[in-house]
């Protein structure tokens, strides 16, 4: 009986925390969008050998415009043709992040471990989100061959497309990884014993 009460309390707390953090407040979108663009600029501003990526906010704070170009294709006047795309930082990064936060904060473990787990989990989830975005950038470069930033062989292209479709296209795959990260950083083997 105690175990089922613990599980129900955990589910209720996780649901409430997730619900509160997922409300469509522009404050959340502003804060996370700015954080995401800053992280993306520092990781992907210089992309591959000769590439560059610029990230800018659109009218909605949760939507980001990215321009990918090649320094070797810049015209003498400084202008350059770039491949452009938009993405939603709320779906790409914020939703997986708040899922981790709600799972960790609701976990039936001591608070000290929750805080350590939260810090470690946020680092791992952010790395996962950035990896997913790196795959997205490679895919955009592969789709826009005129950028001359990717040169996959047929075998590598098939492997890359499989990995891209498995991780980046499906949003549910990242959520499974988030749950795995939560389990990894929060619980110890002794937590599951009678």
Describe this protein with a few key phrases.
alpha+beta; single chain; four-stranded antiparallel beta sheet; 6 helices
How would you explain this protein's 3D organization?
With 194 residues, this protein is α+β, with helices and mostly antiparallel strands. It has one domain (2-192). Helix content is 63%, strand content 12%. The protein contains six helices and four strands; from the N terminus they run ααββββαααα. It has helices spanning 2-21, 26-44, 89-106, 111-143, 154-169, 171-186, and strands at 46-47, 51-57, 63-70, 83-88. Strands 1-2-3-4 form a four-stranded antiparallel sheet. Strand 2 and strand 3 form a beta hairpin.
Query: Can you tell me the overall shape?
Result: elongated
Q: Provide the low-confidence segments as ranges.
A: none
Estimated radius of gyration: 20 Å
The tally of strands reads: 4
Strand sequence of the main sheet, in spatial order? 1-2-3-4
Q: Report the helical percentage.
A: 55-70%
* Multimeric status of the protein: single chain
Topology order in helix (H) and strand (E) letters: HHEEEEHHHH
Biggest pleated-sheet summary: 4 strands, antiparallel
| Class by SSE composition | alpha+beta
Q: Name the beta content range.
A: 5-15%
Counting structural domains, the number is 1
Q: Helix segment count?
A: 6
